[in-house]
């Protein structure tokens, strides 16, 4: 089974894709930003990640796919505007909100105890490059982290749906392509990359382990 990468801009899967490949995932990338269509069903999909900056509304078929993946308890990961798209698809609301640059992110009490975020700094600077914000989370979701203005920076819904409004997948080259390669990036990127590696490895081992993807089984996740 494949891990489906729904790519919404030209910056790629970066650190997330590397970690998933290192843990044995077979990646299938669909360039939504170039008009490519996702598969019509989830029969050969073991996990879904949607990431990048969404320049225009995604097709309704993509929203249905995200909702179906969540309902089926498939691992579902959103980065950047992808997190807002997931929140909207599973019963929340997103809103237009242009944002680019480094922002302070603080874990909530729930985030400090979450298995994926365990052991990382409670406060860190994270890079944001998107056009969406989460206006309202679905009732099933919990806030994992907030930006300094108290808006949602990360959330979890159920056991396998995670959304991060910041762009932990981006490396220095990708950040520079957004116009963000400056002294602030030099100061903050090393820590942000360490956090991203830890979070993505936790996702690969706890949320989307490869034995589950290969067997196509829905299992309970025990912490």
Write a compact overview of the structure shown.
The chain is an alpha/beta fold and 223 residues long.
Can you give a write-up of this model?
- The longest helix is centred in the C-terminal third of the chain and has 25 residues.
- The protein is α/β, with parallel strands linked by helices and 223 residues long.
- The C terminus is likely disordered.
- It has a 9-stranded mixed sheet with strand order 2-1-3-4-9-8-7-5-6, with helices on both faces.
Structural class, please? alpha/beta
- Rough outline: globular
Stated plainly, the CATH topology is called Rossmann fold
Query: How would a crystallographer describe the biggest sheet?
Result: 9 strands, mixed
So, the CATH homologous superfamily? Class I glutamine amidotransferase (GATase) domain
Level-2 CATH architecture: 3-Layer(aba) Sandwich
CATH level-1 class: Alpha Beta
User: In DSSP terms, counting alpha (H) and pi (I) runs of 4 or more, how many helices?
Assistant: 7
Give me the side-by-side strand order of the main sheet. Answer: 2-1-3-4-9-8-7-5-6
List SSEs in N-to-C order: EHEEHEHEHEEEEHHH
List its salient traits.
223 residues; alpha/beta; Rossmann fold; 9-stranded mixed beta sheet; 7 helices; 32% helix; 31% strand
Helix and strand layout, with pairings?
Layout lengths: L1 E6 L6 H9 L4 E5 L13 E8 L7 H12 L4 E5 H9 L3 E15 L1 H5 L9 E14 L4 E7 L4 E6 L3 E4 L7 H6 L5 H25 L2 H6 L8
Parallel strand pairs: 1-2, 1-3, 3-4, 4-9
Antiparallel strand pairs: 5-6, 5-7, 7-8, 8-9
């Amino acid at each position: 089974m494949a891990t489906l990468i729904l790519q919404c801009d030209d910056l790629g899967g970066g650190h997330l894709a590397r970690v998933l490949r290192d843990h044995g995932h077979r990646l299938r990338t669909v360039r939504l930003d170039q008009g490519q269509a996702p598969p019509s069903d989830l029969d050969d999909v073991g996990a879904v990640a949607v990431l990048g900056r969404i320049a225009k509304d995604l097709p309704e078929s993509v929203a249905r796919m995200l909702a179906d993946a969540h309902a089926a308890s498939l691992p579902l990961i959103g980065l950047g505007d992808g997190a807002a798209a997931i929140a909207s698809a599973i019963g929340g609301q997103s809103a237009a909100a242009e944002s680019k640059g480094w922002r302070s992110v603080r874990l909530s009490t729930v985030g400090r105890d979450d298995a994926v975020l365990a052991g990382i700094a409670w406060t860190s600077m994270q890079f944001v490059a998107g056009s969406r914000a989460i206006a309202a989370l679905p009732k099933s979701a919990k806030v994992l982290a907030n930006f300094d203005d108290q808006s949602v920076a990360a959330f979890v819904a159920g056991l396998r749906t995670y959304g991060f409004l910041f762009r932990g997948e981006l490396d220095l080259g990708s950040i520079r392509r957004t116009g963000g390669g400056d002294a602030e990036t030099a100061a903050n990127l090393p820590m942000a990359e360490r956090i991203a590696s830890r979070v993505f490895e936790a996702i690969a081992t706890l949320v989307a382990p490869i034995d589950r993807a290969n067997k196509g089984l829905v299992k309970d996740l025990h912490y």
